[in-house]
Amino acid sequence: MPEQSNDYRVVVFGAGGVGKSSLVIRFITGSFRDSYIPTIEDTYRQVISCNKNICTLQITDTTGSHQFPAMQRLSITKGHAFILVYSVCSKQSLEELRPIWSLIKELKPNISEIPVMLVGNKCDESAELREVSTSEGSTEASLMGVSFMETSAKTNHNVTELFQELLNMEKNRSVSLQLDGKKNKKSKPKKNKDVSNGTITQEGGEGSSGNGKEKCHVM
Ligand SMILES: Nc1nc2c(ncn2[C@@H]2O[C@H](COP(=O)(O)OP(=O)(O)O)[C@@H](O)[C@H]2O)c(=O)[nH]1
Ligand SMILES: [Mg+2]
Questions:
Q1: Which terminus of the chain has a smaller tally of CB atoms within 10 A, N or C?
Q2: 212 pLDDT band (50/70/90 cuts)?
Q3: Rounded to 5 degrees, what angle do the CA atoms 121, 39, 16 make?
Q4: Does an H or E element contain 150, and which?
Q5: What ranges do the domains of the chain cover?
Q6: Nearest 5°: phi and psi at 145?
Q7: Which residue, among 90, 84, 49, has the nearest Cα to 64 in the 3D structure?
Q8: Closest ligand 1 atom number to CA of residue 157
């Protein structure tokens, strides 16, 4: 059987210093740090639920360099979705995404079915520091045939949206983050099961996506 495991694996690529770790940490923990700690490769996990199944959103934060090609190939092979990050303050960081994008296309023959987001991070930075305009970023994404978004891990702009959009692009399974659409904390006593702070919500409920595919929620 081809593995359609309980894991949904997202891999984050980009040059060193563009804010990959900051984006992932912001998404997972809600915090931001100003210091720069070079990453080799870290994987963060977030429990989500797919209908009645518990599954894991695995986010792999990679190193910016090409020091570990074997690791890079492995992450690509295992990845279900990709985030390609550059800094809007560095044109070079956008250019540096080219080789990894070529490698992704080489290793994923069905690339058109795979969610990929080109992300211009650090959009909070002042206009003078910008080297890549929003329209340049967006044009680049169209040329690549992928989606585009500008983010700031620092101000938390578009961070959740980034992951949400990416999962919304998945066509083979219906994975989506529903962080705000549902008040699944403790606020609303639910008719059905509602495993308190873990909050497994099972019914398709309000935003039911239509085509009868599974719906996944963050827990
Ligand atoms: N202004 C600004 N700085 C950021 C942002 N994201 C990350 N940084 C800073 O950029 C540096 C590199 O971030 P890091 O996440 O370690 O980059 P990585 O090498 O791509 O993982 C750190 O000093 C961060 O504080 C952002 O959205 N805006
Ligand atoms: Mg890092």
A1: N
A2: very low
A3: 45
A4: strand 147-150
A5: 8-175
A6: 80, 30
A7: 84
A8: 27
Q: Which H or E run includes 197?
A: none
Q: Which architecture, in CATH terms, is 8-175?
A: 3-Layer(aba) Sandwich (3.40)
Choose one of 28, 35, 36, 125 to mutate for the ligand 1 pocket test, by most ligand atoms within 8 angstroms of C-beta.
36
pLDDT in tens, 150-164: 999 999 999 999 998
DSSP sequence for 93-143: HHHTHHHHHHHHHHH-TTGGGS-EEEEEE-TTS-GGG-SS-HHHHHHHHHH
Would you state the pLDDT for residue 70? 86
Instruction: State both tokens at 60.
Output: 């792999």
Of the chain, the end-to-end C-alpha distance in Å amounts to 28
| Type of residue found at 13 | F
The SS3 call for residue 14 is strand
